[in-house]
Every structure is written in C-alpha cells, then in structure tokens.
Design a protein that fits this description.
Helix content: 55-70%
Structural class: mainly alpha
Largest sheet: none
Number of domains: 1
Distance between the termini: 21 Å
Strand content: under 5%
Oligomer: single chain
C-alpha cells in the first residue's frame, strides 16, 4: 500500500539527519537515566543495611538477615521492587514515583530493544514526560542518600544542611543530559504527554 502524502512527509521528517540525531540523543539520555536510577535503588538500599560491617558492630550474617527481613521479604522474586517498596516506606520516594518507575522501566526496554523502529516510525518517540520524571526521581534519591550521609558523617557535625539543596553527581549528570534535549526535571506529570506520541505496542 502506497503511503499517503501526509505519512510520506512525516517519514521524511523523521529520517532527516537533524531528526535522527535528536532521536538518538533523547534515546541515549533515557537509557542513561535508567542506568543511573537502578543502582541507587538496588545497591543503595543494600549498602544502607550492610554499611555497618565496616565498623565491626555486627556480623555479616546478622546484617544480611536484617536486610533480608526489612527489604527482600517485601518481594522475594524481585529485589528492585522490594527496594522500591522500602524507599516508599522511608519516604525517599512516593508511591506515584514508584509507579512511574515501572513505566520508565518498560519504556527503557522499548527504546533499547526497538531502536531501529524508534528511528523510522513517526508514531514512536522517546517519552519526554517519563524522562522528566526520571530526572526528578534521580534528584529525590540523591537528596535521600545525601541526607543520610550528612546526618552520619562527623564532618557535618554542628552544620545546618539544607537537604533540598543536595545535588548528587548522578543528578547533575542527568540534569545536564536532559537539558541537552530540552527536558527539565519538573516538565510535566507522567501520563500527560499531549505533545508526545505514545509508543506503539
């Protein structure tokens, strides 16, 4: 079937060099966001419980048991989701942000595994609403882990720390990358992407 003129024009626009370059930049930024978020959730929560080993206050088995009981038992089949649930309980993230993380993870797999489609399908775009949400989640995680450091590190004793001003290295990188593709961390709510084409199934 010969495509309509409208479809042909959209395809030509999608394949224009500047459009391909922009698509690849957005895709790279989105993939980077996911890779910056995941270790802060899985490794960060695990290390929070295991950091006591260095001080020799508890045995490894005792500390691991505490981690298992407080985190892993929340979802024995998925350490990522179990860690997310714990982060909601300690108010590092909201339940809405964790739900958005599920969308981010799904879209990350679409972008990573369907890159050729992303480059040629006019109806398949990187969801910038999820990218903006990812930037904000990276910020929140940085504030949470940074506040724990500030509260436990003797070098901050007697100092007043504004937790909201904490900017982790991951957040600064994410903010820079997102800025390159015209996205800010508080662009709009996930699901509200009137100007963005939702990915086809």
């Amino acid at each position: 079937m010969v495509p309509s003129m409208d479809m042909e024009q959209r395809l030509n626009a999608k394949l224009a060099p500047e459009s391909v370059a922009a698509t690849l930049m957005r895709a790279g930024c989105f993939l980077s966001a996911y890779e910056l978020i995941k270790p802060q959730i899985i490794d960060g929560v695990r290390d929070f419980f295991l950091c006591g080993i260095a001080e020799g206050e508890e045995s490894y088995d005792e500390v691991w048991s505490e981690y298992h009981q407080n985190v892993l038992t929340r979802n024995l089949k998925n350490r990522y989701l179990a860690s997310c649930d714990w982060l909601v309980e300690v108010e590092a993230l909201t339940a809405e942000q964790v739900a958005t993380l599920g969308e981010i993870q799904k879209h990350r797999h679409e972008v990573a595994h369907e890159l050729p489609k992303l480059l040629v399908d006019p109806d398949f775009e990187v969801r910038t609403d999820l990218l903006a949400a990812a930037v904000e989640i990276v910020r929140c995680l940085g504030v949470f882990w940074g506040s724990i450091t500030a509260d436990t590190d003797p070098q901050f004793d007697g100092q007043e720390v504004d937790y909201d001003d904490i900017k982790s290295g991951s957040y600064l990188l994410m903010e820079y990358l997102a800025g390159m593709v015209g996205v800010s961390g508080k662009e709009k709510e996930p699901g509200r992407h009137e100007d963005d084409q939702a990915p086809t199934q």
